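Researcher:
Attend to token order:
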Amino acid sequence: MQLDNSTLLLVAAILGATWRMATPIAFAAMGAAYSERTGVVNLGLEGMMLVGAMAAVVGSDKTGNPYIGLAAAFISAALIGVLFAFLVLKLKGDQVVVGIGINIMALGLTTVLLSAWYGNRGSSDLVTGIPAINLLGSTNNEAVKIIFSQSPLAYLLIGVVLLSWFIFYKSPFGFRLRAIGENPAAADAAGIRIVAIQFLCLALAGGLAGIGGAYLSLSQTSQFVRDMIGGRGFMGLSANIFGGWNPLGGFGASALFGFFMAIQMRLAGTRIPSQIVQMMPYLLTVLALIPATRKSRAPASLGVPYHPER
């Protein structure tokens, strides 16, 4: 069966939108994978994304270079990840409570800074964003142009996913990381530096979430909007679970989220009640991924505090 041109362009538009919608969720899912594979439940990803989104805008605004803003997003969100690690690993705070506290702190902090720096409690000034590119070059195929005209961060995501999979399953560091999440006592007895690896992974989780936030503020809106993450940090956490704590699985689940969000955009303005349209991506994604959760297994020590003697 051959598709006519209009149908082909519609499919291309949906696929392109799927990639765009999935990108920030997938960055959060990668962060969740690094965190939870070491046994730490990280509910603070939403707040880390929010801090990253604001830092990206401020960095771009002050320097005129969005890539400096991107670096600021990674570093600032990674520092929030370190704060989370310190509160959980050193001060022995409850992982869930600290994660929720990080989200509340991030919302309050960004709101105050937004008002102080921009005199506006709703949004920042427009800044230099990161424009879309097409790595396939000057193709004459309109459908291909639509699909592959993406932010450089969307292409970066593919590299992050593949590199993370390699680290998890093909490197000595990944073996240690997964050992901590499965049996921290055995890992400790084997001489693995549990706390150091957990600190590193939580900082990296924050940094990746920060890039996801920067994608929203620099590649989609070119400004910071109060509470602009809209639950994508929690979606990333869910995508990681549905994906079996595997970077490739997390990316696939994020893509499914993105696909249904792209369909939601297409249905906006139709006769379907807006409430149904708004809930559809989340409901359909959960229903579609229920079979996958039956086959996946969480790290054995996920959420179980372990405090080594050394």
